[in-house]
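STRUCTURE REQUEST FORM
Protein name: 3-keto-5-aminohexanoate cleavage protein
Source organism: Pseudomonas alkylphenolica
Requested output: structure tokens
Priority: standard
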Amino acid sequence: MQFFDDSLHPENMEKVVITVAPYGPEWMPEDFPEDIPLTMDEQVQKAVDCYEAGATVLHLHVRELDGKGSKRLSKFNELIAGVREAVPEMIIQVGGSISFAPESDGEAAKWLSDDTRHMLAELTPKPDQVTVAINTTQMNIMELLYPEYLEGTSLANPAIQAAYSEMTVPAGPAWVCEHLRRLQASNIQPHFQLTGMHALETLERIVRRGDYMGPLNLTWIGIGGGFDGPNPFNFFNFIHRAPDGCTLTAESLLKNVLPFNTMALAMGLHPRCGNEDTIIDHSGKRFGSVEQIKQTVRVAHELGREIANGKEARAIYRIGQQYSSIEETLKANGMAPNRLPGQKGVPQRG
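Status: completed
Returned output:
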């Protein structure tokens, strides 16, 4: 991204698109019963509360009544339909780490393992976005979850810690290309969850080959454990390399969420918050998703930035847009064109 002398002036920035992740799949409801919704009605109401507080993008996961994360496609369809009816302007972004489980013996017989993950393209009603990881990556969320943060929670259990420390995000090249093909065919926008520079470089190659032709909405994730660590220089290097025409959201965890969101807000970028990212404030006290949104709104206003409503957020994310060629995709995302046959030197932006 390029910055000019007046790039840090709020009048030259897009309005703020706040993403909230209020379903905290790594926590059990008893870890924070005041904030983690359990029933379907509670999960829909949480979306309403977050939208009214100022968040326009809902990062969605679903729970079963026993508190565990749902792997049933039907439950995701139910929650998406409920949120769509309750807050129709909210952008629904389904977490792409889901691997659906068959709900009957017949389904079990016909599904292959990759097909269960590709089922995200078959959600009904359709979400606006599905998050997509690039490159298979270790996701050891335990690396930066210090013991004092976990005391009295389900993650204090050594067996659960061991399972989460070995977690990976499978996103190899064949799977990614097929997943992008299916999402684009369903007119569902991918939101790219990038773990560092290697993922951004691979995504650029995907675009330059024409395997994805649409807007680039990116999230940089600084959570360590196989992803970039929460070091500002990692974030700034990523910003420097990100295409001029993309949107970029910051994501970190626990006490790192507010500092990275503040940096993002100051530079004209976008923040993410919610109990999937942190359940504590800077003093270590429980801190719910709605209160985190309100804090983000306050910080944005202190920096002179306005908050996007649902319609404005859809325009900023270019929801529903796809492009017809590689060249159009590169131009729309502020990237240099591909080198022409016989061309020498560095390609210039057209």
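Reviewer notes: The first strand starts at residue 19 and ends at 20. DSSP finds 13 helices and ten strands in the chain.
Form closed.
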